[in-house]
């Protein structure tokens, strides 16, 4: 079940470096694309950075609306993640083409992708220079949600839910799932 | 064995979102810290973005030298990664304290961390505004190296080398290893 997450914990959704789905909405259209180049940028209030290439339809919608969401997709969605990262939504409706379902977000117009395990609703912080030079968008997270079956206490815990593990794209459709959960010992001087 | 990697493939070292070690050198001192907030920013020439907090000794050395490396550590180094991310090198030598060994890089003064599986030598692209506002450093990758036992053909393939898997920090010393390698099917319209 999707449950709200305190904003001060929102960075944890991306801290382990999963590949994301970026949704956007403007001019009566919505779109979804994959972005592996996304990361947290601050804790509280939480900020994120994401690369949105210049020629993409997502870029056009994000620049028009000043909003997007970053969703954390799962192994069960692997083919869809790869597909929406390879095709453009300018001419076609990727939601219908790849059987992705959306639901409304709470504080932005861009929708949430159903079946994901984490969701960040984001408002762009205007940095025109880095947007133009590096296709880099900086945004504040204004709402966060998590799938509670893979979130125990204060963090991700996928347990035996193999199909709900987040994924990490390398290149060319080769992904790694998020692997074993390991706790490092409290640092001690060696 | 550490072998050179073509610059056009350098983005693959970080594309799956591993936690990194950042090394730096200036004024006759070197340092190493952990950074989970690092990602590729461009393919060729490759660029990266990394968050280096204002109060850190690494920040001082990177600002003085305009250089750093991003190294990809392994599960075998988990305790060390957590430790160098928790302590400051300003007063103490983290290399000695946590038994990390360095070797010279090829094109920057910052050293490479031995035992890692990937290494990016980076030169800062001056963006004073985002450095100041977001602690965000943008850099060009000028040399790249990979441990060839976990790199098959053109990408990561950890196979059975569990201790050489890269790691992904969530929070508070909880990490995930890089998990199962899965190939998504070529996108097809559903």
Automatic annotation (TrEMBL), chains A, B:
Record-linked SMART domains: Flavin_Reduct
Domain Flavin reductase like: 13-157
Cofactor(s) this protein cannot do without: FMN
Keyword RNA-binding: no
Signal peptide: none
PANTHER family: FLAVOREDOXIN (PTHR43567:SF1), FLAVOREDOXIN-RELATED-RELATED (PTHR43567)
The family this protein is said to belong to: Belongs to the flavoredoxin family.
Name under which the protein is recorded: Flavin reductase family protein
Organism per entry: Archangium minus
